[in-house]
Amino acid sequence: MRAPIGDFDTAVPAPDCLDELTAPVADAVRRWTGAVPADRIVYVETDPQWADTAVFVEHYGRELLEQSANCVVVAGRRGGETTLAACLVLSTTKVDVNGVVRRQLGARKASFASMDTATSETGMEYGGITPIGLPHDWALLVDSAVVDLPYVLVGSGRRRGKLLVPGKAFAELPGAVVLEGLGV
């Protein structure tokens, strides 16, 4: 199979390579029910040393920068309660944590979650966190620009490998809320 975007040596429909994914991501692919068929989610094998976006696009092609998105875990606090959520924004932008995220979560204060919290709560590797397979009780805040792309390159749950996902599929994930201006 040829990857729908980018130039990768290995591209496989995600349902055909579940053993390459972390358990929560593999489970989400197995249970996939969205309008976009699961086999349109494509796993591409990549070298973990190139996992971070800036280095990744230098190695795999600068054109991928405009088609890549980052998924980050945020923590909203109000009183003594902390709410975890994930945000998905284009790699060319940054998450508006103190504005859009804070308001959407109804938090007094919002910040990026620590690496330990992000990895332990998602069951994914830092640098590979993906919106597919997040805890079901989390909000997934998705920038509208991500949904508009035909295909988006995101993490696979591991530093090795990425997923190529039709943008509109993110709007159908559990807890997804599509927002204008999440990425600034």
UniProtKB/TrEMBL annotation:
The protein's superkingdom reads Bacteria
Residue span, YbaK/aminoacyl-tRNA synthetase-associated domain: 60-169
Which InterPro entries does the UniProt record give? YbaK/aa-tRNA-synt-asso_dom_sf (IPR036754), YbaK/aa-tRNA-synth-assoc-dom (IPR007214)
Transmembrane region(s): none
Protein name from the UniProt record: YbaK/EbsC family protein
